[in-house]
Amino acid sequence: MRIAVVGTGYVGLVVGACLAENGNEVICVDNDASKVRSLKKGRIPIYEPGLEELVVRNQREKRLSFSTALPRAVRASQIVFIAVGTPPGEDGAADLKYVVEVARDLARAMNDYKVIVNKSTVPVGTAAQLRETIRRETIHPFSVVSNPEFLKQGAALADFMRPDRVVLGVEDPRARELMKGLYSPFTRTGAPIMIMDCASAELSKYAANAMLATRVSFMNEIANICEKVSANVDEVRRAMAADHRIGPAFLFPGVGYGGSCFPKDVRALLRSAESSGYKADILKAIESVNSRQKSRLVSKIRKHFTSLKGKVIAVWGLSFKPNTDDMREAPSVTIIEGILSQGGKVTAYDPEAEKSARRVFGSRIEYVEHSYEALTGADALAIVTEWNEFREPDFARMRSLMKSPVVFDGRNLFTDEQMRSAGFTYYSIGR
Q1: Which of 61, 81, 159, 230 has its CA 20 to 30 A from that of 10?
Q2: What's the pLDDT score for residue 260?
């Protein structure tokens, strides 16, 4: 099929590259000329495992191209994906101005029947709004489809190529068959293509992310209770996970969730509920617990040292999760700002997120190229992101480098017994 993808951010790049990998002819469009030039050279502005290789290979095979010319891309395509940002407004609601602008521009460029697929995360009612926007700008027939993305950063290619499900909000038979044909190669192992109304499709993305965020915040709440009553959250988690109604996923306590999806989507769903006249108390609690949890590690550090003035805290992990360089709403930001506000100093290491961190902290913290380098002369280590390379360190080397052997483990990578036998004073979450 001939496809245009408008927007070359995280979602647009993954969608475009994966569709091209299956033999489709894909044009990815962006109004940032410098970004398009970089993409044509195979330079990817984000870190996502395997994405750069996929983009380079499909450009070489002439299945994937990049352009700033939206009208030409629309006219050349049967299906047009909208994959632009929906940043939160001042009240937390999703700002749809970019989505609407793109819909208006592509409507003016249409030359025959098009399927307009909204891939951006949007509140209920957006499909109807886009349909009306496009109808005012064109005489050509079209269909609007809601197709929310369910991509985990760090595993996005696998999520797209081998999805758990494909959700399609589509009410036109012609568009339904085109979209089923487009996605059928990705669902040959039995993943369902779920056809539903647009409102239900739009809500499904918010509901899924809110459910996952609920599990994270709930386990953090349980972990905090465990500390108060001298229970071990690891044992509690194992007992919970053995119940098949609950299962083991997203039951690991830590320093809170971050990233581009959970915080934004929980807020947007909360605002959407409020605007419809519903008081969503659970959604408010999810936000409250997560906000408090991000400061949990700083509280432990302050309690141990009494005063952080002049103390050097090494930080392992800056991105909000492993296998990404994304620091949007990352717990590391709250933790480092908390340390700095108390007069402490920070030496930080992350395998991929240093460039992102420099945009946040500038020169207020020190950056190093290797994990052990961060420990030299440190009064303590704070583990914030669970990159695999942190899971089996050389404890003797760590002790020899640190000024004092103190570890604040925000991801529970180690056990109390393990750290005690290695000679560390050790603090974790929920134990």
Answers
A1: 61
A2: 85
Contacts of 59 (CB under 8 A, 6+ apart): 40, 42, 65, 66
Tell me the residue type at 266. Answer: V
d(CA 16, CA 48): 14
Confidence of residue 91 (pLDDT cuts 50, 70, 90): confident
Q: Tell me the pTM.
A: 0.92
The answer to whether residue 307 scores a pLDDT higher than 90 is yes
Extract the tokens encoding 25.
């002819």
Q: How far apart are CA 280 and CA 210, in angstroms?
A: 12
37 within 8 A of 15, measured Cβ to Cβ: no
DSSP summary character for residue 77: -
The answer to whether the CB of 55 falls within 8 A of the CB of 26 is: no
Over the chain, what is the mean pLDDT?
A: 96
Q: How many CA atoms lie within 13 A of 382 on its CB side?
A: 32
Q: Residue 94 has which token pair?
A: 């999703």
* Tens digit of each residue's pLDDT (9 = 90 or more) over 220-242: 999 999 999 999 999 999 999 99
Q: Which of 28, 198, 226, 261 is catalytic?
A: 261
Distance CA 280, CA 233 (A): 28
Calpha distance 318→222 (Å, rounded): 25
Residue that is written with structure tokens 């079209």 in the block: 142
Pair of tokens at residue 299: 């509280």
Note whether 80 and 49 are within 8 A (CB): no
Amino acid at 224: N
Over residues 330-362, the pLDDT tens digits come to 999 999 999 999 999 999 999 999 999 999 999
Q: What is the CA 119 to chain-centroid distance, rounded?
A: 15
- What's the pLDDT score for residue 88? 86
Question: Could you tell me if 127 and 144 are in contact, meaning their C-beta atoms sit under 8 angstroms apart?
Answer: yes
HSE value, Cβ hemisphere, 13 Å, CA-based, for 174? 10
Handedness of CA 167, 173, 175, 178 (dihedral sign): positive
Question: In which band, very low, low, confident or very high, does the pLDDT at 124 lie, cut at 50, 70 and 90?
Answer: very high
86: which 2 tokens?
């929906």
CA distance 368 to 348: 6
Sign of the torsion formed by the C-alpha atoms of 254, 155, 166 and 12: positive
Structure token pair of residue 392:
């089996």
Residue 18 designated active-site: no
